[in-house]
Specification:
globular; 422 residues; single chain; 33% helix; Rossmann fold; binds alpha-D-glucopyranuronic acid; alpha/beta
Length: 422
């Protein structure tokens, strides 16, 4: 009984926007709209155009990171330290062939002279047996840990809420697809990849008041003239915490892939832009504040996202509501910060709220930076070409917002194309 209200809250939260805007419109399959501005290697503020890779890495990358924090996401901590409070083996042979472990974590962060601490949170990790140093897919989702990685040994309270389980999960899956709450862990392990999951609401709640309170608490030493970070940035930092925990006691180098759908798709991109230890990104339907350009956009406007989710971004982003054309920076520059690492941008033709066209134009706009590294970014001139081996792979399928049956096989094809060849 008590689960039903939660279910409706979950659907409202997930679907505000996307579900309510299940319009009959279809994204066009030919790119439509002007090129991304400013040109990624052109002049930027007081900076001259980028003339070399050295210019890009030593001058332009830091300037873009600063501008993204100042205008959109708010500031990451000046420094931080993760503590692994406990690490426990839960099952040596879980999900048809993986080693399942639980990490109990807490982080200390420093802004200026002030240190604060996160709440304690958990990470569950399952790595394929017999595949030493398998690449690990870092996953954050809408659902508490017991729904993301359901296993008898993963703690589940008696009155488990969140994504619910039972009929609630059934309805959610019906609306948002088979894999919305739970990835196909067995399939992923069988393909030779590990999975690490956290529920980032444990330290930065995805709720307006509670979220803002936690974000303020975590950034209390921030200088008053700087923008406080929003939840999208805090969750992006969460991906770095996952890497820190996995690196502690690792047997050798391995690849980490940040994976996220929708709001976590935004964070998964930001995480890789700021943390070079992340080798690749799968960002599915990330939309506004993710891969889709702010300027000349269709779908969710800056005003809509700020009104709906005031805890996601820095206050400064509000200044561009209705004034998107005045933005000094746009999302192709976020993608460019990830170059030359592979990125998959997932889309659906009826998910016009996430603006598949804007994501395509952002990918085109990031291209010159991939070329600067001798890599090939997006390598197509239509939206419906599936080229998993491209460094920017663009996936579009029929249907709406969600993680459906055909999405994970495509994600794994992209990973195989980039990681099996090594
Ligand atoms: C809403 C929001 C989007 C977001 C999505 C999600 O639709 O408007 O920006 O990506 O929720 O996270 O599912």
């Amino acid at each position: 009984m008590s689960r039903w209200p939660l279910l409706f809250v979950a659907i409202a939260a997930l679907g505000a926007g996307s579900c309510a805007k299940l319009t009959l419109a279809w994204a066009d399959l030919k790119p439509d709209g002007p090129a991304a501005r400013p040109e990624v290697l052109g002049a930027f503020g007081p900076q001259a155009p980028v003339a070399s890779l050295e210019d890009w890495t030593s001058l332009r990358r830091p300037a873009l990171k600063e501008a993204l924090q100042a205008n959109i996401y708010g500031y990451f901590p000046d420094s931080y330290k993760l503590t692994v409070l406990d690490r426990k083996l839960l099952d040596e042979n879980a999900f048809g062939g993986g080693r399942l472990e639980e990490y109990k974590l807490r982080a200390q962060l420093r802004f200026g002279e002030t240190t604060s601490e996160t709440e304690t949170f958990y990470m569950d990790v399952v790595t394929p047996n017999g595949v030493p140093n398998a690449p690990v897919i870092l996953i954050q989702t809408f659902c508490p840990r017991w729904d993301t990685l359901p296993h008898p040994a993963v703690y589940r309270p008696e009155d488990a809420g969140g994504c619910g389980g039972g009929p609630a999960t059934g309805v959610m899956t019906y609306v948002f697809g088979r894999y919305i709450a739970t990835p196909p862990t067995q399939m992923i392990l069988a393909r030779g990849y590990g999975v690490a999951t956290i529920y980032p609401s444990e330290f930065a709640p995805d709720r307006k008041d509670e979220g803002l309170a936690a974000l303020k608490q975590m950034s209390k030493g921030l200088a008053s003239d700087k923008q406080r970070w929003g939840a999208i940035a805090a969750w992006a930092w969460g991906y770095s915490l996952m890497v820190d925990a996995l690196e502690e006691g690792a047997d050798g180098p391995r690849d980490y892939i940040s994976w996220g759908h929708s709001r976590y798709g935004k964070s998964a991109l930001l995480a890789a832009a700021f943390d070079d230890r992340i080798s690749a990104v799968i960002s599915h339907q990330s939309g506004t504040g993710g891969a889709s350009l702010n300027q000349q956009k269709k779908g969710e406007s800056v005003k809509a996202i700020i009104d709906g989710y005031p805890h996601w971004f820095a206050k400064a982003y509000e200044n561009y509501a209705g004034e998107e054309e005045t933005m000094p920076i746009d999302q192709h520059q976020l993608l460019a910060l990830i170059a030359p690492r592979p990125v998959l941008l997932g889309n659906a033709r009826r998910d016009v709220w996430s603006d598949p066209n804007g994501a395509f134009r952002a990918a085109v706009g990031a291209g010159p930076v991939y070329k600067l590294y001798g890599a090939q970014g997006l390598d197509q001139d239509r939206l419906d070409v599936w080229a998993p081996a491209a460094d920017i792979a663009y996936w579009i399928r029929p249907g709406t917002h969600g993680v459906v049956k055909e999405d994970w096989p495509a994600f794994l094809e992209f990973l195989d194309a980039h990681f099996l060849k090594k």
